[in-house]
Amino acid sequence: MLGSYVGESEKNIRNAFTMARNAADSSPKCCAVLFFDEIDSIAPKRGGTGDGGGVMDRVVATLLGELDNNITNDGGYVFVIGATNRPDLLDPSLYRQGRLDRLVFLGLATEPSERIKIMTALMRKFSFENGIHAESMAEQLVNEIPPNLSGADFSAITSGAFMQSLGRLCRQIERDSKNEGKPLDDYMRSLHPEQLIPIITKKDLMKAAQNVIPSVSPDTAEYYNSLRVRFSS
Asked: What φ, ψ does residue 112 adopt, rounded to 5°?
């Protein structure tokens, strides 16, 4: 979004909104959604960036102007969503009515039902021992892993368990090919596709969980909760 030439960043923002408006006009529902991830990188508080030329101030001003013009010529709407883990760095003008005027705090998943849903979604394509389903495996694991895990931590656990099961399968295939005296490639071609699918066990998941350090410390969680209270008031 940000460019290296004078005026390029502002142009990129205008182009993004123009494409969103065109998409809204061509949509049967007459609306489009424009999502900015890490929006604090393009909308910091004005007057405090110290860039010398006021580049970020102009970028923020351009963004605010486009937010105020979110209705298309044909009556469509552009809904803008921004994500950030530093709302305290954003320019306060973004929170005014008609701009980003709805704040949603996404904290750590602490309820067992929430954690089960996250793990089930991450493991929905995995194959497990004894043919059990992803949700059943998540229910077995939910009370045996740290309570302060983020979505990225859950992803690290599931991907780590998958890599362990994949490594185990590769070693097993290598041993079997040697026992039968066949080249590895020939032996693999003789296998049924289902025999090449890694089977994940609860032990794999537990071992992967032991290797994951929670990315959100108690102090950090307390800080974000203080931000939630501050902005909700």
From this structure: -55, -40
Sign (positive or negative) of CA dihedral 67, 71, 72, 73: negative
| Structural domain spans, the chain | 8-95, 112-216
Alpha-carbon distance of 151 to 102, in angstroms, equals: 23
The confidence score (pLDDT) of residue 3 equals 55
What pLDDT, on the 0 to 100 scale, is given for residue 200? 95
Classified by CATH at the fold level, domain 8-95 comes out as: Rossmann fold (3.40.50)
**Fold of the domain built from segment(s) 112-216:** Helicase, Ruva Protein; domain 3 (1.10.8)
Q: What is the mean pLDDT of residues 28-42?
A: 88
pLDDT confidence band for 106 (50 / 70 / 90)? confident
pTM value is: 0.74
Backbone angles phi, psi at 129, to 5 degrees: -60, 145
CA–CA gap between residue 71 and residue 85 (Å, rounded): 28
